[in-house]
């Protein structure tokens, strides 16, 4: 069955499940620091049956991308961008407990931002979704030192590594880190995401490539094809 938008408003993007009026209201409240109003919109979507994964993708991720564009165009200040980020982090913490998690299946995942990466919301959302899908998800957050991450991978022996790369200047660092990680655990699945990586995959040369995951739906499709096989 095809998913339908929540509500009756005209959509700006046919791939988005949230009406444009709802999305615009959310973004307006987000950049004005109205956390209570943002939470109210999230609660309405949940009450109408929208899955948490769709709220993460079509509301949280999409709104932060728009906030980022507004900042790049000098339409909002960096302070406003930080407020929007902080509100979103609060909403993630309040939304996640309302989701129904699948039973644990014993597989482990490590999700982190590479060294120097301060934007951690994308990786936080991925870690949350993995946990809801039955994974034991170990979330390391922003600016993870390479040696500390490699040590943890050796200790945990996870089945999946997810890296967030928001800055294009950190893409090569992510490649080096993945090469080192796979040298110790060749069977481990690896994915990367964030605005710092483009295309469908991250080329690792002799180690083939690692898929670039731009949203939660792509992650779930990848896991169905590879981790759940």
Task: Characterize the structure shown.
The protein has helices at residues 20-31, 35-47, 52-72, 78-95, 121-132, 146-156, 171-184, 216-225, and strands at 108-113, 136-141, 160-164, 189-193, 201-203, 209-211. It has 229 residues and is an alpha/beta fold. The protein folds into two domains: 20-98, Methyltransferase, Methionine Synthase (B12-binding Domains), Chain A, domain 1 (Orthogonal Bundle); 108-225, Rossmann fold, CATH 3.40.50. It has a four-stranded parallel sheet with strand order 2-1-3-4, sandwiched between helices. A two-stranded antiparallel sheet has the order 5-6. Residues 1-15 have low confidence and may be disordered. Residues 106-229 form the B12-binding domain. InterPro entries: Cbl-bd_cap, Cobalamin-bd, Cobalamin-bd_sf, Meth_synthase_dom.
List the helices and strands and how they pair.
Blueprint: H1 20-31, H2 35-47, H3 52-72, H4 78-95, E1 108-113, H5 121-132, E2 136-141, H6 146-156, E3 160-164, H7 171-184, E4 189-193, E5 201-203, E6 209-211, H8 216-225
Parallel strand pairs: 1-2, 1-3, 3-4
Antiparallel strand pairs: 5-6
Helix pairs in contact: 1-2, 1-3, 3-4, 6-7
Organism: Solidesulfovibrio carbinolicus
Domain B12-binding: 106-229
GO molecular function, one term: cobalamin binding
Distance between the termini: 23 Å
Number of domains: 2
Order of strands, main sheet, comes to 2-1-3-4
* Text of the CATH class of the largest domain: Alpha Beta
Portion of residues in beta strands equals: 5-15%
N-to-C SSE string, H for helix and E for strand: HHHHEHEHEHEEEH
Cα radius of gyration in angstroms: 18 Å
Number of strands: 6
| CATH architecture classification name of the largest domain | 3-Layer(aba) Sandwich
Helix content: 40-55%
| Fourth CATH level, the homologous superfamily of the largest domain | Cobalamin-binding domain
What would you call the structural class?
A: alpha/beta
| Helix count, DSSP H or I runs of 4 or more residues | 8
Low-confidence stretches: 1-15
Main beta sheet, described?
Answer: 4 strands, parallel
InterPro entries: Cbl-bd_cap (IPR003759), Cobalamin-bd (IPR006158), Cobalamin-bd_sf (IPR036724), Meth_synthase_dom (IPR036594)
GO molecular function, one term: metal ion binding
Organism: Solidesulfovibrio carbinolicus
Protein name: Cobalamin-binding protein
């Amino acid at each position: 069955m095809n998913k339908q938008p929540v509500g009756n408003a005209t959509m700006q993007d046919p791939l988005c499940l949230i009406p444009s009026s709802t999305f615009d209201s959310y973004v307006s409240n987000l950049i004005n620091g109205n956390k209570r109003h943002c939470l109210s919109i999230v609660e309405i979507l949940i009450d109408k049956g929208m899955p948490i994964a769709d709220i993460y993708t079509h509301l949280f991720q999409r709104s932060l991308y728009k906030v980022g564009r507004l900042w790049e165009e000098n339409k909002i200040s960096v302070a406003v961008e930080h407020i929007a980020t902080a509100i979103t982090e609060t909403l993630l913490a309040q939304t996640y407990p309302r989701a129904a998690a699948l039973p644990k299946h014993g597989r482990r995942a490590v999700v982190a931002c590479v060294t120097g990466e301060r934007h951690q919301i994308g990786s936080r959302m991925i870690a949350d979704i993995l946990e809801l899908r039955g994974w034991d998800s170990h979330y390391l957050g922003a600016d993870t030192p390479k040696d500390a991450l490699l040590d943890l991978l050796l200790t945990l022996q996870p089945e999946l590594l997810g890296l967030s790369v928001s800055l294009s200047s950190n893409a090569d660092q992510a490649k080096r880190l993945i090469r080192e990680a796979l040298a110790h655990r060749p069977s481990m699945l690896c994915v990367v995401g964030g605005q710092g990586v483009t295309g469908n995959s991250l080329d690792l040369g002799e180690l083939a490539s690692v898929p670039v995951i731009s949203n939660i739906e792509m992650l779930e499709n990848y896991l169905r094809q590879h981790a759940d096989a």
